[in-house]
Amino acid sequence: MAAPRLPGLPPPPLLVLIALAAAAQPPHQAAFRAGHGAASLPAAAAAAPRRRYLLYDVNPPEGFNLRRDVYIRVASLIKTLLKHEAWVLVLPPWGRLYHWQSPDIHQIRIPWFEFFDVPSLSKNIPVIEYEEFLAESGGPFIDQVYVLQSYAEGWKDGTWEEKIDERPCIDQLMYSTDKHKYYRGWFWGYEETRGMNVACLSVQGSASVIAPLLLNISARSVMLDRAENLLHDHYGGKDYWNTRRSMVFAKHLRVVGDMFRTNFLNSTDEKDRTQYSEDWTKMKVKLGTAIGGPYLGAHLRRKDFIWGHRNDVPSIQGAVETIRSLLKLHKLQRVFIATDAVAKETEELKRLLPEMVRFEPNWEELELYKDGGIAIIDQWICAHARYFIGTSVSTFSFRIHEEREILGFDPKTTYNRFCGDEESTCEQPTHWKIVY
Ligand SMILES: Nc1nc2c(ncn2[C@@H]2O[C@H](COP(=O)(O)OP(=O)(O)OP(=O)(O)O)[C@@H](O)[C@H]2O)c(=O)[nH]1
Ligand SMILES: [Mg+2]
């Protein structure tokens, strides 16, 4: 079942545009326009224009920051679908992430608003939380689940082409049927959720390659599992950046980071010449405007990176030497360190670098913000430093680069990374310019 190519799709019919406009309005307004008294229908049903739902999930071992990248890819798919039909993206609840290992705190079924500002996301594409989907769509049922996979045979003749085909599942299916023939699976920790149909799709290409297929089937709710198999429609393009800029961190986390900057790093937006708008669509800061707080920001990715990237990740000692020389070069007294290092390593860090500053949550803060929130606070503080240095090929560091680009830092102060102790070339990260 080879899907037709996108350019062949018909233009969006008028009715669809009207439905789209209704979908973009606050639910109660849309209901009134549709001629219903709000009281005459259950609230959720009244709120629901006939829009279709796109859900997705990512390979379990993938971390928080790659997942943020996958969101950007899926958002561009939604933008393509919206040219033809009213679709909404259902935000996949966070949880059970490999790195989120703090014991005794509840870390599944976490809605997006705990980490991101959902109204900001909505200024880019229509989104709803999973629980809103449950209420609006009439229950924990997903009409069609597609598990994305690559092609068993790899690239044919070594030539790259974008394609998508329903194929037998290559890996063992992570869904099984219950006695009513419904499919059961992880579904972000929502046990009661059921899939009505599950199939595997081999895919090779950018996110929108799947659009024609989605527009051709009748399932109202479609979940793409293993969505990381989709590539970016246009990495670094305007759509990419619009989506990235819309991924504003939740305000409560930014506030905690800002308080920490003020109290421990002598850093405020005024002093640092940070131009910030709560409305990301109004932010377009000239590079070099922001000077950042009087501290060095360093992201030291440890754990699996120590053995996974043996050549380009420094020893603790090597990192401290680099930090010392950067402090001297930039005439800074303070260094803020974001790291996932284990206790033994942070003790060594403290011994070698007694003046370092870290955000160390107490148990209540950890329970409140969770591992994901603490990571965001770390990223936010690094994003406001006079000079930043990150870890080679860490998506955690990449997300800090982007944040600093949005804030308007001179690229020289952003695209830097630690070198491995024995590394000779030590290529520095690429500067990705925002396209507004
Ligand atoms: N609080 C905090 N957590 C961190 C830090 N560095 C890593 N982590 C945790 O470890 C996870 C890193 O995993 P990813 O988000 O996959 O990013 P990455 O592992 O650096 O990059 P890739 O695996 O290459 O995509 C984060 O989501 C955090 O949970 C840090 O400096 N501070
Ligand atoms: Mg990772």
From TrEMBL:
Keyword terms, alphabetized: Carbohydrate metabolism, Disulfide bond, Endoplasmic reticulum, Fucose metabolism, Glycoprotein, Glycosyltransferase, Golgi apparatus, Signal, Transferase
One biological process term in Gene Ontology: fucose metabolic process
Major location category of this protein: endoplasmic reticulum
Chain ranges passing through the membrane: none
Entry GO terms, CC: endoplasmic reticulum membrane; Golgi apparatus
Pathway: Protein modification; protein glycosylation
Secretion signal, residue range per the UniProt entry: 1-24
E.C. number: 2.4.1.221
Entry GO MF terms: peptide-O-fucosyltransferase activity
Catalysed conversion reaction: L-seryl-[protein] + GDP-beta-L-fucose = 3-O-(alpha-L-fucosyl)-L-seryl-[protein] + GDP + H(+); L-threonyl-[protein] + GDP-beta-L-fucose = 3-O-(alpha-L-fucosyl)-L-threonyl-[protein] + GDP + H(+)
Localization, UniProt: Endoplasmic reticulum; Golgi apparatus
Entry-linked Pfam families: O-FucT
InterPro entries referenced in this protein's UniProt entry, alphabetically: GDP-Fuc_O-FucTrfase, OFUT2-like
Homology family: Belongs to the glycosyltransferase 68 family.
Function (record text): Catalyzes the reaction that attaches fucose through an O-glycosidic linkage to a conserved serine or threonine residue in the consensus sequence C1-X-X-S/T-C2 of thrombospondin type I repeats (TSRs) where C1 and C2 are the first and second cysteines of the repeat, respectively. O-fucosylates members of several protein families including the ADAMTS, the thrombospondin (TSP) and spondin families. Required for the proper secretion of ADAMTS family members such as ADAMTSL1 and ADAMTS13.
Name of the featured protein: GDP-fucose protein O-fucosyltransferase 2
Organism: Podarcis lilfordi (Lilford's wall lizard)
